Amino acid sequence: MSGFVRIFEHIKTLAARVLVTSAALLCAVPAAQAGAPERVVSMNLCTDQLAMMLAAEGQLLSVSRIALDPHVSPMAEAARDYHINSGQAEEIYLMQPDLVLAGDYTPQTTLDMLRGLGIRVEVFGITSSLDGVTTQLAKMGRALHRTSRAKAMIADFEARRAALAADRGKRPSALLYYANGHTSGEGSLAHDILELAGFRNAAQEAGYHFGRKMPLEVLALTDPDLVITSTPYPGGSRAEAVMAHPAVKALKEGRTSTAVTDHDWVCGTPRVLDAAARLAEVRREMTGAQP
Amino acid sequence: MSRVLAPLALLALLLFAGSLLIGPAGLGLAESLRGLMQGGDSPVTLVMREIRLPRALLAVMIGASLGLAGAAMQGYLRNPLAEPGLIGVSGSAALGAVIAIQTGLSASFALGLPLAALAGALLAVLLVMALAGPRGTSLTLILAGIAVSALAAALTSLVLNLSPNPFAASEIVFWMMGSLEDRSMTHVWLALPFMIVGMALLATLGRGLDALTLGEDAAQAMGIHVSRLRLLLVLGTSCVVGAGTAVAGAIGFVGLVVPHILRPLVGAHPSRLLWASALGGAVMVLAADIAARVILPDRDLKLGVLTALVGAPLFLHLILKLRKERF
Amino acid sequence: MTALPDSALSVSQLSVTLQGKTVLRDVAFDIAPGEFVGLVGANGAGKTTLMRALLGLLPHEGESSLAALPQAARAAQAAWMPQMREIAWPIEVRSVVMLGRTPHLGGLQKPSAEDRRHVEAALERMELTEMRHRPATQLSGGEQARVLIARALAQDTPLLLADEPIAGLDPAHQIATMQTFAGLARQGKSLLVSLHDLGLAARHCTRLILMSEGTVVADGAPEDVLTPERLAQVFSITAFCQRTGEGLVYQPLDVIR
Q1: Which stretches of chain A score pLDDT less than 70?
Q2: Mean pLDDT, rounded, of chain C
Q3: Which fold has domain B53-326?
Q4: Looking at domain C9-84+162-255, which of 3.10.20.30, 3.40.50.300, 3.90.470.20, 3.40.50.720 is its CATH number?
Q5: C192 beta partners
Q6: Which pLDDT does position A40 carry in this prediction?
Q7: CB contact, 8 Å: B231 with chain A?
């Protein structure tokens, strides 16, 4: 009997060993699959930046061509260290990525094709508020398996944001006026930046809520304390010509300060706080407040 | 004659006033007029003088240009289908303007924009005239026009697509359809000299165009210098269409619709049609621009959309009519 | 000046080469005031080319007293009715005829009473007074031809050139038009008119110029020009010809095969 028991025990141990080993083996395979992606390709200006900020050394393979354009990309210098893609399925597939990062505006057909080829695709939405920045950071952290770095960055972001929000004083009115006469009201990242910098958004007060077109004459009658236009692109366009219209110029003249939006305003990254800080500086100049 | 001109002038005046008084800012009548007349630097004055006035002025200038150019070209080619937009003159002017903007010519030299548009228009007029000829049938004229228009549109797209400016590529619609949205007095001053010169040239053509009713030989034997007339026509048309397109894009069908409607009212005389069409063109563009603002106040509805909605059916009607007569 | 003081038109050694082909060779003639010259010849003989060349509408060699004039003076000297009857727009008849007064108007000048008188006279001559306010394009082909003749008459020039003006007119209007031309010649004007109706040409013209293959083959009184030999040679036809109490009767008969 004892011999039998011994044999049984032996078998049990053996089985347990086998079980453990196979469990370890079984676990090892999914661990490799769900582990940190090693060949990441980003196809969108904003995912480019988030990925460059969060990715581990060698993890990010390629960023989009537009990331090289200093006009919209605050990390244009850094982008030079990566392969550049132009957003075509074919070239991206040939890079053999294990994760593709795309934006809302990436053509659906391209994404479908990449998914069809068995590549994992993560789509990041448009950031329309400062809260959205933390969401994006967290999401990118998860996608790249860099959650701790993301957490640190979020903490830093929130601290700087709180510091800026604490700087309260007189709140002059400001209005964002972009190409084609578009403005930004509540529900946009630019609106949040404006408010964080201590301005009232004149577009909001005039009833222009989202990124909406504001007729030039409404702008003239709104008569804000500060008109913030965007930096024009090279090459010229009729869409941007409106920012140089005599009526807009007249609104900018006679004002002590001017401001333009730049690449820091484009994407929902911690960089937006740099934009808000600079704008707050303009506000202090305007109101004569001390920091 | 003044039976036609006086009512047209009155209508143009009313629409001009309407154009000044209608806008998204919703200013009152008294307030608007005060802002316009008194000056100063109040926001209302800014709206009236820098936004609405140039818009209304450009509508008059461009409408008159297109009407006049249409009437003159039809008179010379003896063909009611000749129109700057349809035969590619406006499109080529737009190409010239786009090239001037994208190469930086317009930025480095103020007159670069209208001059480049003028050159584009000139090239197209010469090309269409060479292809269709003064004795060409409607068919050859329209075919030549289609070829020139298509080429101009394609090259305009190409230039805009090659632009480093991301907004430029989406502006093909503006250049092909035209709009007076957010134009300024700068644009008025840019276009005005060329339009004055062009209109002055075209205005001298009346008698020659009348004589051309009987054909080139007969006109020449009546003392008309046909080759000089052709030169003045080409230059005049290029000036007015070039300048108009440079600041407001290509607005089609005005030069077709207006002379067609007014022709019976002036006894079909090409000379009398010239000034009547100038006034009629102003009326049509003013009306279209007001309609664009009333129908879709929030969007930049293109003028060419409205003129085409009126013009294209009329164009088809004219083709049917000509087919019955000639084929 | 090659033109003699008493000649309305003087042409010498006039040649035209179109696309390397000589279509008119060494044509020479003078037309005196009071002459009604019929220009006859088969299709393609060069009648239209001759008239356009001597008007200065075609590049040419040789001399034409008319082509030598500046354009304004030319328009005061000669009226021209092309073969192509073009009326591009539905202008009323009276206005089309008024176009004939173009060379007499300066700058922005409006038509004077005299201009109107000439127009009314031309309308009456061509029996158009009734339809003076109708759009010319709505008229029949023959009526349009009469409008265009009236237009040329209204130009009131010493010399009138017309290319087949009576083609397509009904017999009564053909005869009336020829009589009008003959009447103008009697008033001292000169006319050079190309014609295909040899009967009307023989009866009304004071002189005929017969052309063949770009040259003048005969020039003189109708009876002398339209000899049986020349008819056979130039037109390949036979004709009956006799001077009667009613004037010269001339009737083409058969084609010579």
Answers
A1: 1-34, 210-211, 254-258, 289-291
A2: 91
A3: ABC transporter involved in vitamin B12 uptake, BtuC (1.10.3470)
A4: 3.40.50.300
A5: C37, C161
A6: 96
A7: no
